[in-house]
């Protein structure tokens, strides 16, 4: 059966990107790395890294979402991805040092903003709109009024 997987076309050696992601994610399996490309699986997601990009930057129109159980996971991924040349952005978005966009989303965010009590949910949405990294305690405080 055919498989669909994302390919990241980077302007650095693919092995550098593999080593970087191995330092961030606890579950990385590397199938192949050579000077032109790498094949790996990050937390169950197959990914190809292709070297040689000189002209095309990543943008927020395509991103990877990291579902986080709690604030500790949010902090881990956010801090690692925004370090050393990464950048924070609004509403759980950040980019890593290679320009790849990520959404670091705690489970609580989806619970609060999807709550059937729309008054409470809207307070959570308004709180989220003021944040870059999502702080679960602040979100919960807004949700509870």
Summarize the structure.
This protein is α/β, with parallel strands linked by helices and 145 residues long.
Give the topology.
Layout: E1 7-9, H1 14-22, E2 28-33, E3 37-42, E4 45-50, E5 63-68, H2 71-82, E6 87-88, E7 93-95, E8 101-106, H3 107-113, H4 118-129, H5 136-144
Parallel strand pairs: 1-4, 5-8
Antiparallel strand pairs: 2-3, 3-4, 6-7, 7-8
Protein model, in words:
The chain is an alpha/beta fold and 145 residues long. It folds into 2 domains: 1-56, 2,3-Dihydroxybiphenyl 1,2-Dioxygenase, domain 1; 57-145, 2,3-Dihydroxybiphenyl 1,2-Dioxygenase, domain 1 (Roll), CATH 3.10.180.10. The protein is 34% helix and 26% strand. It is built from 5 helices and 8 strands, in the order E-H-E-E-E-E-H-E-E-E-H-H-H. It has a 4-stranded mixed β-sheet, covered by helices on one side. A hairpin with a 4-residue loop joins strand 6 (87-88) and strand 7 (93-95). The protein is elongated. The mean pLDDT is 97.
Strand segment tally: 8
* Multimer state: single chain
> What is the CA-based Rg, rounded?
17 Å
Overall number of structural domains: 2
The fraction of residues in strands falls at: 25-35%
What fold name goes in the CATH topology slot of the largest domain?
2,3-Dihydroxybiphenyl 1,2-Dioxygenase, domain 1
**Helix share bin:** 25-40%
CATH class of the largest domain: Alpha Beta
Helix and strand content put the structural class at alpha/beta
General form: elongated
Annotation field: number of helices: 5
Most strands sheet: 4 strands, mixed
Q: What order do the helices and strands follow? A: EHEEEEHEEEHHH
What is the CATH architecture annotation of the largest domain? Roll
The overall average pLDDT, rounded, is: 97
What is the assigned CATH homologous superfamily of the largest domain? 2,3-Dihydroxybiphenyl 1,2-Dioxygenase, domain 1
């Amino acid at each position: 059966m055919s498989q669909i997987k994302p390919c990241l076309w980077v302007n650095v050696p693919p092995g550098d990107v593999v080593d970087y992601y191995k330092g961030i994610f606890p579950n990385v399996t590397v199938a192949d790395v050579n000077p032109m490309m790498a094949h790996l699986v990050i937390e169950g997601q197959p990914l190809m890294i292709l070297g040689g990009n000189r002209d095309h930057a990543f943008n927020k129109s395509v991103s990877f979402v990291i579902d986080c159980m709690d604030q500790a996971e949010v902090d881990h991924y956010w801090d690692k991805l925004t370090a050393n040349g990464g950048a924070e952005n609004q509403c759980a978005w950040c980019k890593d040092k290679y320009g790849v966009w990520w959404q670091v989303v705690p489970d609580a965010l989806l619970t609060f903003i999807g709550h059937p009590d729309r008054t409470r949910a809207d307070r959570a949405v308004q709180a989220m709109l003021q944040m870059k990294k999502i702080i679960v305690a602040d979100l919960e405080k807004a949700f509870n009024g």
